[in-house]
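Weekly sync, protein design subgroup
Attendees: M.S., D.O., the rotation student, P.L. (late)

Item 1: inverse folding check
M.S. brought a backbone from last month's batch and wanted to see whether the design step gives back something sensible before we order anything. D.O. pointed out we never logged the input encoding, so this time it goes straight into the notes. Structure tokens as presented (366 positions):
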């Protein structure tokens, strides 16, 4: 096995002359790339584009709004992954814009790191209803499915906002200007769903693709693979994370997802409806579905495309149309201390990753 330095040397020896844009589809990949300084180490004609790899960033505004309203208006304990507590919604300043602000206003809201914590809280206080606001991609949605499949406490409800990653890439590739020449596919999603989910990139769009992990060596191996494929013209789905990613993925996790949830055409914040990109609970699990148990707090007017805060270009960052520091608010009105858009909130958001990695100059061009 080559180490990072050897893969970097091999990549340079390819002597790839024309500009190439490689998209990664994982917030963890973007964090590793930025913190390791890989953009400055690879040849200048190779661009690494952060893509739709942040579930917090694309969680529909109406879902976050509904979570806030349930927490404020119902006698519940609302739990959510920590990043979700700071995601802003568009409401007047006098109202709670985040779950964090709703907590300050008196709602019982608690951050958790896994569904097992939601179960523990529900079992500890069986007289209270616990609502788990479950936003995430396949990697975190699968444990939520397992929690329900294996028998969740009766007082535990789920407000589900789960999304699949591959449909967003398919949408980009089916557009007139995809904006990238090769794909680095997400390792953890492939661990659950199997690397085969990404075969369509090769079969339908004739672009090279490679699954990568999170160390610099596996990321550089994936970059080398897709560049070599471009140079030779031979396309394949390369698994550069074989110690974790196996053919077929995690069969039990996939079985539990299929048992508990169904796929539907879902909204992505700032993007709109993407076909077959969302998870929702099946009828058999209606007793645990917060949307069926409580009256609806959904506001249909919030579902319009582009529902980011005013001036925020987060949606274009998510889709790889611009770099984070090309957003007009980056580092000016929007910083990790005072985030305006969700891409600056989450540890998987490209804007926060770039800021934490030292990219502080705003390069917005009107």
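Designed sequence read out in the meeting:
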């Amino acid at each position: 096995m080559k180490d990072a330095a050897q893969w970097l040397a091999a990549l340079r020896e390819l002597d790839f002359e024309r500009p190439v844009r490689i998209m990664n589809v994982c917030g963890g990949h973007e964090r590793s790339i930025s913190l390791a300084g890989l953009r400055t180490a690879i040849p200048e004609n190779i661009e690494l584009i952060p893509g739709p790899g942040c579930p917090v960033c694309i969680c529909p505004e109406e879902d976050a709004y509904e979570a806030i309203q349930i927490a404020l208006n119902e006698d519940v304990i609302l739990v959510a992954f920590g990043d979700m507590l700071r995601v802003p919604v568009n409401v007047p300043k006098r109202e709670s814009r985040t779950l964090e602000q709703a907590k300050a206003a008196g709602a019982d809201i608690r951050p958790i790191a896994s569904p097992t914590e939601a179960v523990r809280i529900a079992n500890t206080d069986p007289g209270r209803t616990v609502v788990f606001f479950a936003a995430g991609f396949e990697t975190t949605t699968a444990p939520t499915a397992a929690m329900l499949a294996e028998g969740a406490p009766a007082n535990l409800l789920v407000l589900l906002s789960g999304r699949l990653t591959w449909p967003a890439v398919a949408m980009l590739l089916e557009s007139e200007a995809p904006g990238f020449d090769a794909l680095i596919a997400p390792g953890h999603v492939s661990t659950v769903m199997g690397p085969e989910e990404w075969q369509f990139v090769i079969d339908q769009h004739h672009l090279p693709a490679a699954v990568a992990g999170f160390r610099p060596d596996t990321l550089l191996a994936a970059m080398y693979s897709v560049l070599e494929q471009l140079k030779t013209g031979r396309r394949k789905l390369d698994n550069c994370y074989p110690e974790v990613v196996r053919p077929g993925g995690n069969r039990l996790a996939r079985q539990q997802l299929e048992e508990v949830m169904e796929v539907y055409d879902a909204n992505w914040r700032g993007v709109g409806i993407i076909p077959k990109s969302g998870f929702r609970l099946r009828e058999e699990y209606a007793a645990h579905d917060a949307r069926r148990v409580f009256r609806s707090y959904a506001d249909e007017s919030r579902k319009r495309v582009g529902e980011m805060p005013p001036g925020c270009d987060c949606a274009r960052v998510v889709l790889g149309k611009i770099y984070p520091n090309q957003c007009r608010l980056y580092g000016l009105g929007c910083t990790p201390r005072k985030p305006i858009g969700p891409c600056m909130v989450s540890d998987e958001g490209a804007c926060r990753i770039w800021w934490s990695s030292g990219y502080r100059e705003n390069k917005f061009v009107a």
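Discussion: The chain has three domains: 4-54+168-239, 56-165+249-303, 314-356. The first strand starts at residue 20 and ends at 24.
Action: P.L. to compare against the previous round before Friday.
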